[in-house]
TrEMBL record:
It comes from the Bacteria. Residues 9-285 form the Inosine/uridine-preferring nucleoside hydrolase domain. This is Inosine-uridine nucleoside N-ribohydrolase. Gene3D superfamilies: Ribonucleoside hydrolase-like. One of its GO terms (cellular component) is cytosol. One of its GO terms (biological process) is purine nucleoside catabolic process. The keyword Hydrolase applies. One of its GO terms (molecular function) is purine nucleosidase activity. The keyword Zinc does not apply. InterPro entries: Inosine/uridine_hydrolase_dom, IUNH, Ribo_hydro-like. It holds the Pfam family IU_nuc_hydro. Keywords: Glycosidase, Hydrolase.
Amino acid sequence: MSAENRRRVIVNTDAANEADDQFAIVHALLSPTLDVRGLIGAHFGEGRSAQSQKDSRLEIDKLIDLLGGSDVTVADGAPHALPDETMPVDSPGARLIIEEAHATPDVPAGSRTEEPLYIAFLGPLTDMASALLLDPSIADRSIVVIWIGGPAYGDLVHVGASPEYNLGNDIHAANVVFDSGVTVWQVPASIYRLVNVSYAELEARVGPHGALGRYLVDQLIAWNARWHPRPIESRSLGDSPAIGLMLEPFSGVFRPQTPVRFTAAGDYEPSSKPQRIFVCEQVDTRFLLEDMFAKIARAS
């Protein structure tokens, strides 16, 4: 496939945190229209590991090995959250974002040839915030940040720990990104939790397809058995909407969000900053899951 028919993307992933990043990473790498310019291993706090960023990097490397190898760039992200909203945590991952942002050609807004750099964040926004603090000029480049994170809006109830997990791992970073003026497509918890798959479906559609398929299913079931406190036989592949939206931006329904930022408790509060935040309110899960299952089967 020619370069002009591919979409430049970066995937920033706290890959060892749960069991859904793995499916998203594999889906991205198996999709011919995505020119994956880099995978960035992200931290996920210290609640589950004292070396969470290193664990994420090891998990990315394992998945690439199961795929039979890849020449994709893999970079380490920040080992911890921002100390405040002014101080970046420099890392190879943040530098990769800056480099690729500046590689995006300048074209007139609205041009039919305009194709932004898509950067998917499946965990905290630490590396995007650090890149913006290190080089604020990238906020004016043609970039779309797709963030899986943040609580539900309005009167929808946020079920689960508060603050929402990805947000809670770096609230300072979320505020830096939301205040920056960069375009953000936010997939909040009320949407990402709806990409639910059962063990039975995974055993039928993913498990039979080689060592990769077997690993994806087994690690998900094992994670639930270790960490989930209640009876369960399913899991939301909540990080996967970021990949579906990069594959086909029209597979999501968005609304523009009036300016917000986050309190220390992880709640929304009004912001006076000019923003380009679009909140995803619906994802085409049929397209997303069927495309992923078919590509895993084809790769085996």
